[in-house]
Amino acid sequence: MGKDKKSNGVDMEIQEEHADGVRKRETWTNKIDFLLACIGFSVGLGNVWRFPYLCYKNGGGAFLIPYFILVIIGGVPLFFLECSVGQFMGVSGFRAWSICPLFQGIGISSTIVVFFLNCYYNIILCWSFYYMFSSFALELPWVSCGNSWNSKYCTDFSSEAAESPFVKNISSMGNFQKLVCSNATETYYAIFNESGTIRNESYSTACVPSHLRLDSVQEFWENKVLNISDGIEPENMGEIKWDLALTLLFAWVVVYCCICKGIKSSGKVMYITATSPYLFMLALLIRNCLLPGARTGILFYLTPDWSRLNDLEVWVDAGTQIFFSYSIAIGALTALGSYNKFNHNSYRDCIIFACANSGTSFFAGFIIFTILGHMAEVQGVDIKDVAAGGPGLAFIAYPKAVSLMPGAPIWAILFFLMLILLGLDSQFVGVEGVISAVVDQWPNLLRRGYRKEIFIGIVCILNFFIGLSMVSRGGMYVFQLFDYYSGSKIILFIAFFECIAIAWIYGVRRFYDNLEMMLGFRINPYMMVSWTVLSPIFCMCVFIMSVVNYSELDYKRPTKPLYKFPTWAVGIGWGMAAFAAIWIPLMILYRFYERGISRETITYLITPQGLKDHQLRPQDKKEGTSADKYRTSNPPPYQEKGTANEGFQSNSTLDNTKL
Questions:
Q1: Is residue 493 within 8 Å of residue 581, measured between CB atoms?
Q2: Residue 426 among known ligand-binding residues
Q3: Is 40 annotated as a binding residue?
Q4: How far apart are CA 436 and CA 258, in angstroms?
Q5: Shortest CA distance to 350 belongs to which of 128, 193, 510, 527?
Q6: Which keywords does UniProt give here (predicted)?
Q7: Annotated binding residue 30
């Protein structure tokens, strides 16, 4: 048994030691570890590619207005809610939501969502490793045309050759276009069909319409890195790209090595991974601002198109981005909070985190849009047409920016190392969210010897094999399927029930008392209003708008027709989403099936289970029933036969629904 630290009778460690040989549950070594873990997890690749992409997709500045409004209404309150639930309960996953047994399925649903997220998030790390390894060369492979992966449309916009010969005449021929081009010495012509395919072999690379020209950076991404096929259909999936498969394996090995010893090792790694990227981002922004066209990009980023605010999709994307960026409703925040000491000031950390998270997203937007403005100017096209969407934006705009810097290979290595560091700590915590949820459920089984390390290895291997489908030629389409269905709209559904469970069933006033017990002071009443009214309305409104404004998944590629995902693929996507969401109502039905439909069952389901002495208010202890009687009749769900169960209390007579 470990030595307990006491303060006014409160167990400050909140550790659990059941039988001999079962390891104690870890806590953060230092107070700052929790804040760095939150920043490291939530401030990551989503800030540097997803946020700028959604700004790019939704008209630049118009996206910023709903984003910051919804951060205040939903982002900050929900982030603090999840962290404080984990800190109060001292466990994660299914057991954390024993605070409201009626909605204990929240723990299962959020764990499934973060498992899906881990499967595809590490693919971005895989791409980053690929780019970093490719940067070890005298010349970056994506800066010029003429390579084996380049097409006829590849254009070196940095050279004078991109401007000559000039298109002198364009004439329509039914479904075709005829271009006549000439320079000082020669005349060329080219005929294109609607999709841009060249219909004759006598042509010049420059004798191509501007909207069909492709930058060498884009072609390296699509033709070399992805070698992307024409769709997700079985005949188009193609073979696994073994170079990407090896980088994916390497990424998972790195993740395992950093988390296998638990939060005490991964927490130290985050001192570097959570802080170092900011220095490089600042250097990159300074360089980008000196490029021609950077001002145009900044104006596109900051100037709102007010008409876009009437578009439901803008508000839906803003809401889902907040959930994605703040890592809400995926269980990981509850896991991080559960490693805090009981009296840790997580309220202060929440405010600091919100400033760091949204500030990083806003800052990253300047880096992206300055280079997009430059690319638009040199290509002679509108900024909204300069790059494909999705995660590819970060692997087009950023590599282009790096290639323009003196000593480009060195900068490229450092940049992609930064991107890897941003992604690794997010992946650490994502995997930890799955591991802690399962280990907390069966501590006597998995906290013995090296069983936890073995279990972590099994989870990483399973994620790796699922990820192999995303490193085939059709892998980008699988990636989009995971991202669109399992990692976006469904978390709104989960977060809504989190608010209902705490604010309306457990009791928001009671939870405020619990927070005062933990923090030592009464927090601002705004959180109470948010959890009770604003945040649930926010979750439901964005969810309903996303359903009303739903459009089936598609994928846009430069010079290619818009790809619509087949019905069966969309069905798989909805199947993943349903598999995560169904556990909330399923657990409610199971509880009633298990215990019967009665007044006593309802009382049990709205009464928190497994609380200890330090988690009860003075009025709870006065009104409560015998703890011994509760232990005998209602053992905690993780309890194994023949093990100790000290310190658990319940109060079946409390008015938990009173606000």
A1: yes
A2: yes
A3: yes
A4: 15
A5: 527
A6: Disulfide bond, Membrane, Metal-binding, Sodium, Symport, Transmembrane, Transmembrane helix, Transport
A7: no
Contact, 430 vs 456, CB < 8 A? Answer: no
Contact call for residues 44 and 128 (beta carbons, < 8 A): no
Find all residues with CB under 8 Å of 113, minimum gap 6, and list them.
329, 330, 331, 486, 487, 490, 491, 494, 580
425 is in an annotated binding site: yes
The strand pairing partners of 172, in sequence order, are: 177
The Cα–Cα gap between 130 and 625 comes to 61
Backbone angles phi, psi at 179, to 5 degrees: -110, 135
Q: What are phi and psi of 231, to 5 degrees?
A: 170, 180
Three-state SS string across 307-355, please?
A: HHHHCHHHHHHHHHHHHHHHCCCCCHHHHHHHCCCCCCCHHHHHHHHHH
Tokens of 467: 């990820």
What Rg do the C-alpha atoms of the chain give, in angstroms? 27
Residue in the block written with tokens 């059941």: 18
Instruction: Return the number of other C-beta atoms located less than 10 Å from residue 531's C-beta.
Output: 23
pLDDT category of residue 641 using cuts at 50, 70 and 90? very low
47 is annotated as contributing to ligand binding: yes
Residue 82 has pLDDT above 50, yes or no: yes
Whole-model pTM: value is 0.81
Question: Taking the CA of residue 276 as centre, how many other CA atoms within 13 Å lie in the half-sphere pointing to its CB?
Answer: 17
Q: What is the overall mean pLDDT for the chain?
A: 80
Predicted pLDDT of residue 51: 84
> What's the token pair of residue 164?
């000559």
